[in-house]
């Protein structure tokens, strides 16, 4: 597949998650809530996590923002549900490294294993958009830290 075709595919995946977000809404019952915003561009996320015995049982989000931040939140919730907290944090670190253009540690996971998240690789070329892409991930990291307390 040529670079242009791959770029078009990735844009389609991002727009699909933006227009049809997965796990958008509110959790019922006991859960952790983290609210974060990106004052630079106005992105805002309200992430809710249900963690039991170290496993992320469910995750939902609400918020508003650009297609990058909202699609990243959608992708992130899909990936972390069912994972243990340790793996969710490893995936978040891997995603952060990918966004910063750093070498990605693939000892535990490969990018191909993470589904639609690969579509966000191109964001690393636009430094101003990296905070958009990582907002939900930072919220998740804060949420699982709260769970540990």
Write a brief caption for the model:
This is Fe-S cluster assembly sulfur transfer protein SufU. The protein has 149 residues and is α+β, with helices and mostly antiparallel strands.
Structure description:
The chain is an alpha+beta fold. It has a single domain (3-148), classed as Sufe protein. Chain: A. 46% of the residues lie in helices and 18% in strands. The protein has four helices and three strands; from the N terminus they run αβββααα. The chain has helices at 3-19, 67-80, 85-99, 127-148, and strands at residues 32-38, 43-52, 55-64. The chain has a three-stranded antiparallel beta sheet, with helices on one face. A hairpin with a 4-residue loop joins strand 1 and strand 2 (43-52). Helix 3 packs antiparallel against helix 4 (127-148). The mean pLDDT is 91.
Layout of strands and helices, then pairs:
Elements: H1 3-19, E1 32-38, E2 43-52, E3 55-64, H2 67-80, H3 85-99, H4 127-148
Antiparallel strand pairs: 1-2, 2-3
Helix pairs in contact: 1-2, 2-4, 3-4
Question: How many alpha or pi helices?
Answer: 4
Strand fraction band?
Answer: 15-25%
The CATH topology annotation reads as: Sufe protein. Chain: A
Largest sheet: 3 strands, antiparallel
Helix content: 40-55%
Give the integer mean of the pLDDT values: 91
- Class inferred from helices and paired strands: alpha+beta
- Low-pLDDT residue intervals, each spanning 5 or more residues: none
Any guess at the CATH architecture?
Answer: Alpha-Beta Complex
Distance between the termini: 47 Å
Number of strands: 3
Pfam families: NifU_N
Protein name: Fe-S cluster assembly sulfur transfer protein SufU
InterPro entries: NIF_FeS_clus_asmbl_NifU_N
Organism: Piscibacillus salipiscarius
């Amino acid at each position: 597949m040529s670079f242009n075709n791959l770029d078009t595919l990735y844009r389609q995946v991002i727009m699909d998650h933006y227009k049809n977000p997965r796990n958008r809404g509110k959790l019922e019952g006991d859960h952790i809530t983290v609210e974060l915003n990106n004052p630079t561009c106005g992105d805002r996320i309200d992430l809710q996590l249900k963690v039991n015995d170290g496993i992320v049982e469910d995750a939902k989000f609400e918020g508003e923002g650009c297609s990058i931040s909202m699609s990243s939140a959608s992708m992130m919730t899909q990936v972390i549900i069912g994972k243990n907290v340790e793996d969710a944090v490893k995936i978040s670190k891997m995603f952060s490294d990918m966004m910063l253009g750093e070498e990605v540690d693939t000892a535990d996971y490969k990018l191909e294993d993470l589904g639609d998240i690969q579509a966000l690789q191109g964001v690393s070329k636009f430094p101003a958009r990296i905070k958009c892409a990582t907002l939900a991930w930072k919220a998740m990291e804060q949420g699982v830290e709260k769970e540990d307390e």
